Structure prediction request, 381 residues.
Amino acid sequence: MWMKKKELHVLYIITKLELGGAQKVCLSLFNGLSSQGHRSFLISGTDGTLTNQVSEEKNIILLSSFVREVGWQSFITEWRAFKELVRKIKQLKKEFPDLIVHTHSTKAGILGRWAAWWCGIEKRIHTVHGFAFHEYQTWLKWVCIYAVEFITSFITTHYVCVSSHDVKTGIRLFPRFTQKHSIIRAAVDTKQFYLPAQKNKFERSTNTFVFGTISCFKEQKNLFDLLHAFKDAYAKNNTIRLEIIGDGILRPALEEWIKHHELTQVITLHGWQSEVAPIMIDWHAFVLSSLWEGLPCAVVEARLLKLPVLSYNTGGIHDIIFSGENGFLYKQKQWHQLAHGMLTLAQNNQLYKKLASYHDDLRSFEQSYMIQQHLTLYRDF
Prediction:
């Protein structure tokens, strides 16, 4: 006899709804579960580009006390956010005793998992979009962040990793990580990119060669390395251009640098865009100079559009970019090598066509596949 599958009840918690990969994944899961007849809820802070778009949606809770900034001075704010999370989770658990709590992003991951544990939630899942501790921090900061995640790992029932790099880090640094993790890729809306890619045909349609990237303007993304690389390559080939989709706290400094080096006519800052494919389709290659990452969705989107990718070998990018096949990877902070790669690609049309036409297997990055993997995880553990 056919039996109807049990309805799932999942609460997603994320710190800030900006246009980032973690946020896209979280919202995709929130909407995907609901569309399949399950009950999904989402808690986030009130800041972020996407907040206004979702503020009126049912089952989305925005907390003003939930902010990204962390520090000893903000302890009272953190405590207020924790108490508010506990209150909301208790309300939901009262109605849905089998509630699953699934956190995304670092701060939401810590506060959310502890709040769920405090409320007696049995299934406490955290998705790692790159661990918050990394080699570019001071020793003290690294130890503090690692210690908090280490302690929190004991109350985490399962980790979802978006890249093999995060899996290796977790196995090396956290107890029982091997037994309680899965790799589920951070999916993108492939339909936005497959169709435009068919029009590309790997041909140069203009006399200029356009490099592009998508990035929040913050220290992690290391955009000044990219600017230095572009400036060096442009001095040797003035037909290249650079376009950047994104925004952030470093925008004034980036604009000043571009103006100081007289590159305002060849570098375009688009700001955040709700739809990036119409802009990316006019690019010839994608570039990335991040110092730490999980596995950026933008790299997947670039390959869906058949753009060769030139990137620092950061996080899990090597899971989908293979040097000499569909792009090139460089050691971090070696912007001279990145500049050389940009110059070579712009001048070598045969190499460009080879990298662009590489057949990528990106099926695991499709939204439907990601949602199904999460449904299986929620039911099976």
Q: What stands out?
A: Residues 75-95 form the longest helix (21 residues). The first strand starts at residue 9 and ends at 14. The radius of gyration is 21 Å.
